[in-house]
Structure formats: structure tokens, C-alpha cells
């Protein structure tokens, strides 16, 4: 058994040249060699912004870059054929493909309808402002460019709960359609956070339930993906995805991995969502991301011993997908909270080398973000190698100091020379005694991050004293393992 590692294979500012799927196919072998065995691809269907769309402004989910809609046949990433080829190329390398599922909202309607609506207070969406009124809402989705191929389903106002624009009055607001209620089992930020943007799907409406299942089955049959990344789950009635995932798994006849994006610092909300979904998916560890941010921006005064407190990785590691950054947290984006460069190697050592969940590596950290002149995270490729080959066996935790914290992996028989010691600090240089295992007594270990030149010898009691430089991470491997890493990189 090898450690699983996910990569989010896009960042927000990829060039709009339609070459991403081809690049992905061309890189599939390199990704496997890098230790990646799961890839999350961006939304593949046509967005309202056509070939400029990152994919979250969903227009037509049956148009994977095949129809002349929104000013383009291809999407930002390429054509349908290129997409399917990218998926096949990844799978041929043994890499599982997760597709991005965006079911909360639609944008770029083909026409407007007159509907009765009540305007709600944006800070408390259960509070109505004034009287019901007639608005002109962009709710007609006919897909004339597709002409009914794959599905003749057309969206109308009855399929939606609300919108944020009255075309008649040329006015922005939160408009809930008459006769509709927001979902009750939902995130309660802003009173009720069912509504996020665009026209909001009414996921209780029987035609919507049927159509989203029909589409999902069509998508599974077409793409043959291995699992899903579910967008914006806190804005969709919590019962919806539980049933949708059941239907998809029943249709596919296999266990499809799923990870949801529940954007909240409050781990209790994540736990409640997991409970409601009967633990049928994992969630990105958003609280841990924010702990990384706090640790990286507290001038060395963050209490590192509490790094995992109230995080999903700390409370339910089997259902956590720890990550460092993503397309929303990068500079210029909606949830901007980018982890400062100095802390990135520390954060990646934590998510990649501990025995917790399936970590997700961000494309922008792996390849860099040219748009912002951000370089790839130094040492990330090396940490991925360490994860794939040496980060195995029993875990020892030493989060017992406000600054210098660390952990060990004792290694196992299945992976030659496996075992690692990791020490990091948000403050000045330091050291710590950690237990590597008595079976390793007398062995020498080296820091492959290159900060500490001296080797360390494991004592007869299985303990050793490791050092770390200021504001950095040291990753100690047995000599043979370290030599393997260096030779491979030569
Ligand atoms: Ca919603």
C-alpha cells in the first residue's frame, strides 16, 4: 500500500488558451512519478463566461466543450475530446480522477421570466424587506446552441429558489421567489446561506432532484471518473448530496471517492455536515488552513502546540482532506487567505508526512503562479517523494511546545528504509528529543531539507535529538533513504 496524494490540477489564473486538458494529458506520467495518485480537475462544463470561465459560473453542464455556446465551442481548458483524453491519460497512469461538481447555482441564462419575489435582507436572509413584488429574473435556460443533444431539460423559474438581480428594476438584491423557502438544513451564516450567487437551484424540487441525478449519471457514463469534488456544499440543503452520492454510487456500481468544500473555520459545522451525510464523503480541512495562516502571520507568537486543535485532521482524520491553499485562497480571489511563502514548506511537511487523511497539493504551489510571479514551493517535490516512499508506520506526536513541534513515523517492513522525523518551528531555531523506535537504535538520520548539516544517531532507547533552523522545517530520513532522494534528483 502506498500513501494516497491528491493534486488540485488548476489555479485561477491559468492562461485562457484552451491547452490545459492537453497539458494535463502530457503531464500524467510525470504526476504519477511525482507520487500523485488522485487528481481533482476543474469544472469541465461551459460557464457563462465561455472560454474565459474558470468553471464556477455554470451555464450548461452537458456542454463539455462541444457546442458553440457563450461565444466558444471549447472551454477555458479545451474541448470535450481533449478533456476525455486527459481523464484517460491520468487513469492509464493509475491516477484517480475527481471531477468538480457545481450544482448550487446557474448563470448566463438565455432569457428572463417575470416572477413574484420577496426581497430579503442580505445580512439575514430570513428577514423580508417590504412587500412581495414582480421582478424580471434570468431563469430561462434553453441551451439553443446544444439543441437538445444528451438532454432536452430546460431550466425555468420553478427550478430555482432565488436570484440577485431584477432586470426590470435594474436592481441588485437577494430575491427569494414567491412560494419558495430557503433550505432549512443549511449553513446559518447570514441567517441562512442557501443563496450564494447566480440563480440558486431549489434542490428540493422534484424535477431538480431528477435532473441533477440524470445529469450525474450521464456525466459518469461519459467521463468514467473515479470520484467527485463537491463545490459549495454549505449552500445546498444537507440532505441533497447524501442522496445524490448514493444514486451515483449505485449507478456506477463502485465506491466513488468524494470530497466536499464546506468553507468554514468552525469544525463543528464540518462535523455536523459529515454526520448528516452519514460520513459518505470527506471534507477539506478549512480550519487547519486557517491555523496555518494564523501561524504564518503571528511573528513567531502562534502556539504551535494547538495547531491541530479544532481541526478536522485533529478530530476525524479519516474524513479530512488537509490542504494548504486552493484557487479561492490565492491572491486576487474570493476567499483570499494565501499562506505566506516562508510557512509553505512547514505546512506541506505537516499535511504530507503525517498519517492523516488524503492531502491535496495545490497546482499553484507545485508549478507556481506566473500571474502573481509566485514561485513553486521549494522542497515540495522532495516532500512528495518522502510521502510516497518513506512516510509510513506508527506516528509519534510531539506538539508539546509553543514554538518547536514535531512528529515521527517509525517506518514499516513493507517500505524499505521508511521512517521519518519532522521538526518545525514558527519561531527561532531549536531542538527536540523525539522517539523514532528502538528498532532503529544506532541508525543515522539526515535532514533532507538541507538546513541542518550534521547527522543524528538514534540512541539505544530509540530516542534522538533533532534540530531545526528558525522559521523552518527539518525532515530527517535514514541515510539510505536520504541517499535515494538525492540520487533520484541528480
Ligand atoms: Ca443554494
Description:
This protein is of the alpha/beta class and 490 residues long. It folds into three domains: 6-103 and 207-389, TIM Barrel, CATH 3.20.20; 106-202, Elongation Factor Tu (Ef-tu), domain 3 (Beta Barrel); 395-489, Golgi alpha-mannosidase II (Immunoglobulin-like, Sandwich). It has helices at residues 20-34, 80-92, 206-223, 238-252, 267-276, 286-296, 312-315, 344-353, 363-367, 380-389, 479-489; strands at residues 6-8, 38-40, 46-47, 58-60, 96-101, 105-106, 111-121, 124-140, 160-166, 171-177, 199-201, 227-230, 257-260, 282-284, 320-321, 360-362, 395-398, 404-409, 420-425, 430-435, 444-447, 456-457, 463-468, 473-478. The strands form five sheets. The protein has an eight-stranded parallel β-sheet. It has a six-stranded antiparallel β-sheet with strand order 6-11-9-10-7-8, with no helix packed on it. Helix 1 links the parallel strand 1 (6-8) and strand 2. Helix 3 (206-223) packs across helix 4. It starts with 5 loop residues before the first strand and ends with a helix. The mean pLDDT is 97. Calcium ion (CA) is lined by residues 104, 194-195, 200, 235-236.
Furnish the topology, listing elements before pairings.
Layout: E1 6-8, H1 20-34, E2 38-40, E3 46-47, E4 58-60, H2 80-92, E5 96-101, E6 105-106, E7 111-121, E8 124-140, E9 160-166, E10 171-177, E11 199-201, H3 206-223, E12 227-230, H4 238-252, E13 257-260, H5 267-276, E14 282-284, H6 286-296, H7 312-315, E15 320-321, H8 344-353, E16 360-362, H9 363-367, H10 380-389, E17 395-398, E18 404-409, E19 420-425, E20 430-435, E21 444-447, E22 456-457, E23 463-468, E24 473-478, H11 479-489
Parallel strand pairs: 1-2, 1-16, 2-5, 5-12, 12-13, 13-14, 14-15
Antiparallel strand pairs: 3-4, 6-11, 7-8, 7-10, 9-10, 9-11, 17-18, 18-19, 19-24, 20-23, 21-22, 21-24
Bound molecules: calcium ion.
